[in-house]
Amino acid sequence: MSAGESGPGPGWTGATGRPTRIVLARHGQTPLSVERRYSGQGDPDLTDLGVRQAERTAERLAAIPGLSAVVTSPLRRCLATAERAARAAGVPLVVEDDLVETDFGAWEGLTFTEAAARDPEVHSRWLGDTAVPPPGGESFAVVRTRVERGLRRIVGERPGGVVAVVSHVTPIKLAIRAGLGVGDELLFRLHLDLASVSDVRFYPDGPTSVHLVNDTSHLD
Questions:
Q1: What amino acid positions are annotated as catalytic residues?
Q2: d(Cα 9, Cα 216) in Å, to the nearest integer?
Q3: Which of 71, 141, 200, 211 has its CA 20 to 30 A from that of 3?
Q4: Of 201, 114, 112, 184, nearest to 142 (Cα)?
Q5: What is the pLDDT of residues 60-96, one digit of tens each?
Q6: pTM of the predicted protein model
Q7: Residues in CB range of 76: below 8 A, 6 or more apart
Q8: Minimal CA–CA distance to 156: which of 202, 110, 113, 219?
Q9: Which string of DSSP letters, residue by residue, matches 9-66?
Q10: How far apart are CA 140 and CA 100, in angstroms?
């Protein structure tokens, strides 16, 4: 990346000013992720592997130059990484409720197959329409509204800063969607690994750019 793109002058995109850099980390492994079950606003602990992933991810986040804060979902599987990173970097830890995972309602804890068998028509519609919620849960459209509100809050409170965000697969996808300016199909086509890191930047004059997606090199 050129000095002009990260500094106050215009880069090749035409964006000006210093962007707010948001480095997004997904939480580590839980028992539900091992079994590939819908894991929304329930609060499982990490597995032993998940703890090791959290430690490695926290080390990576804490080493980011200029890091000013760590913002996290309130759930334990995210706090396990965020607390370590904030402590190691000596920066504030901020809990942001808007960055919590989707409420999967009646599908919480079910596998894809179990949810499809339980509510076949709704599940089929949900797979292609972000306005459709799981029974008793949130639609992706609703989640997008709150996630983007949370991102605006981060950018507004730390303009031009560097912030680590520890969250879940859907909010991170929505942050990347905001950075790319693409449609809802990204939610259904983008894969994010556990404990992966992505990097999205928001410029003060409006443009956005995505610099990294789904990097797990720190886990090697």
A1: 27, 101
A2: 31
A3: 71
A4: 184
A5: 999 999 999 999 999 999 999 999 999 999 999 999 9
A6: 0.92
A7: 43, 44, 45, 46
A8: 202
A9: S--TT---SPPEEEEEEE----HHHHTTB--SS--PPP-HHHHHHHHHHHHHHHTSTT
A10: 12
